[in-house]
Amino acid sequence: MDLADQIAQYMVSGLSTGAIYALIGIGFAIIYNSTEIINFAQGELVMLGGMFTLFFLETMKLPLPLSILLAVLATIASGVLFERLTIRPLKAPTPLSLIIITIGGSILIRGIAMLVWGKDTHALPAFSGSEPIAVGSATILPQHLWIFALTGIAIVSNKLFFQYTITGKAMRACAVNRRAAGLVGIDVRRMVLFSFAISGGLGSLAGIIVAPLTMTSYDVGIMLGLKGFCAAIIGGLSGGIGTVLGGLLLGTLESLGAGLISSGYKDAIAFVILLLILFIRPQGLFGRAQTERV
Amino acid sequence: MLKVKNINTYYGKVHALKNVTIHLAQGEIVALIGANGAGKTTILNTLSGVIPARTGSIQFLGEPVETLPPDRIVKIGISQVPEGRQVFKGMTVADNLELGAYLRFRSREPREQIRQDMRHMYELFPRLEERKKQMAGTLSGGEQQMLAIGRALMARPRLLLLDEPSMGLAPLVVQEIFGVIERLRRDEGTTILLVEQNARAALKMADRGYVLETGKVILEGAAAELLENPEVQRAYLGKEKKEIWER
Questions:
Q1: Is the pLDDT of residue B108 over 80?
Q2: What is the domain class of A26-124+142-292 according to CATH?
Q3: Number of domains in chain B
Q4: Residue B50 falls within a domain, yes or no?
Q5: Domain that holds residue B25
Q6: Does residue B194 belong to any structural domain of this protein?
Q7: CATH of the domain at B172
Q8: Confidence band, pLDDT 50/70/90 cuts, at residue A290
Q9: Residue B40 lies inside a defined structural domain of this protein
Q10: How far is A239 from chain B, CA to nearest CA, in Å?
C-alpha cells in the first residue's frame, strides 16, 4: 500500500469520525446559541445514546432499528430532564454558574451510567454487516456509509427546521435577541428546553452510529464531548455549516496525524487545534459568527 | 381599557416607579414624557411583564394582568416596540415580521390571515417590502424602527406600547413614523401609549399626557394643556428652542 492509498484510507475514516464530531458540535452550538452556556454534559448525552441502544437491544431484546429509535427518544428525554432539573430552577443564572452546573451534571450522569451498566466496554453490532467495500484504493465499511448518510440527514433536517419552521425561527430569534423574543411572545424558557431536546437527539444519534466502530462504555462521553466542542469552536459555534466543516476538518487532521505521525498523538492534535483556534481566531475559522448563528 | 393603579417597581433595591397610576381609554394616544431615568421605559416594561411590579394592580380590559409573563401579555393584546428597536438582526425582514405573529402561528390561526397581515405591513411600510429578503441588521435606523413597529403589529395588539420611536432618527423619518402611528389610530383604532424624549412632537400627536419625574407622575392632562403648561415648557420643551424638524 503506497502513501496515496494510505492517505485515502485515513481520509475515509477521518471524515466519518469528523461527521460524528460535527453532530456533537452542532448540539453544543444549539444550546450555546439559546442560552449562552457551553453544555459540558453534551458528551454524556452521546454516551447515553450508545448505552440506551445497548440496553434496549440486549436487555430488552428489541430489534436494532427500534432500539435505536427508543434510545434517541430516551436521550432526548434525558436532555429535557437535565434542563428541567439543573438549568431552569436557577433564580439568577449567570453563564458561568450554569457551565459549572453542566460539568457537575456530566459527572453525575457518568457516575449513574457506571453504576447501571458497569465499567465494561460494549460493542453495538454494525447496522448492516461489516463486509468492507472497496472505493478506489481505499476500503470503507458499511457502517461508515451509515454514518455519512445519517449525519447528512440529521444536519439537513436540522438546517431546514431552523430555516423554515416558525419554532425554528423562534429559537433563532432567542439566540439573536432574547429580550425582543420575549416581547413578541416567544416563551424563551420553552425554547431553551427545545434546544436541550434537539441537542440530546443529535448527540445520541452520534453516540449510536459511532458505537459499532469504536465500542462504547460509560466514559466515552468525555472524549467525544470535547472533540465535538472542538468542532463547534472551529466553526465559531454556529449551528450550521461552520461546525460541520469544523468537525470534518478535525476528524481528518486527527486521522492523518494518527496515521502518518503516531496514533499516540491523536487526541493531542485535537486539543492543539482547539487551543490555537481559541488563541488566534476565537470567532471560529469561518468568521461571520455574528450573523450565521443559529 | 388599561387601568394601572399605584404600581411600585424596583430594579433590585432601586425604587424605579413610585405609586404610578395611569389609565388609557380605547382608541387614545397617550404620551409619557419626562427626562432620562424618570421611569418611562420602566412603565412599559412593567406593563409588558418584563419587570413585574412589586405592588399595585394593572387591569387590561377588565382583567388583572400584573402577574402575567411577557408572552401571555402579548397574547392578551399588549405589544411593545422596545427602545432601540431590538429587531432580530441576523434574520430577514420577512422572518422578523413572521415572528411578530409567533403566537398566532402557535394558536393555529389560518396562514392566509397572517399572510394578509404581512401584506398590510408592507403596505404601511413600503420600504420593508423592497427589503424583505434582507437581513434586518443591514437596514437603516428608520427602517429598523418601521420593522420593529410592523413586528409588534403582526401580533394584532389592541394596545401598542411605543418606546422612543424617534430616537436617533432623521427628522423626515420621524415624521414618516409619526404619520404611521396616527394612521394606525385613525384607521384601525389601535390604542397607543407613547414614550418620548421628543416631548413636543409626542404631545402634538397625543390626546393626553403624563409627565414623569424620578419615578412619579407629577402632572397629567390633555396634551394641548400640557403643551401650554409653563412648567412643562421650561423643563421638557425647551422654551424658545425650535426643533429642526418643526421648521
A1: yes
A2: mainly alpha
A3: 1
A4: yes
A5: 2-88+151-240
A6: yes
A7: 3.40.50.300
A8: very low
A9: yes
A10: 13
For the record, the C-alpha cell of A276 comes out as: 490555537
Closest CB to B82 among A166, A183, A187: A183
| B216 lies in some domain | yes
DSSP string, chain A: --HHHHHHHHHHHHHHHHHHHHHHHHHHHHHHHHHS---TTHHHHHHHHHHHHHIIIIIS---HHHHHHHHHHHHHHHHHHHIIIIITT-SS--HHHHHHHHHHHHHHHHHHHHHHH-S--B-PPPBTB---EEETTEEE-HHHHHHHHHHHHHHHHHHHHHHHSHHHHHHHHHHH-HHHHHHTT--HHHHHHHHHHHHHHHHHHHHHHHHHHH-B-TTHHHHHHHHHHHHHHHTTT-SSHHHHHHHHHHHHHHHHHHHHT-GGGHHHHHHHHHHHHHHH-TT-TT--HHHH--
ipTM: 0.87
Q: What is the mean pLDDT of chain A?
A: 90
- Is some CB atom of chain B closer than 8 A to the CB atom of A172? yes
Which one of A163, A184, A238 would you mutate to disrupt binding with B, by most B Cβ within 10 Å of its Cβ? A184
Look over chain B and give the mean of its residue pLDDT values, rounded to a whole number: 91
pLDDT digits (tens, 9 = 90+) for A183-234: 999 998 899 999 999 999 999 999 999 999 999 999 999 999 999 999 999 9
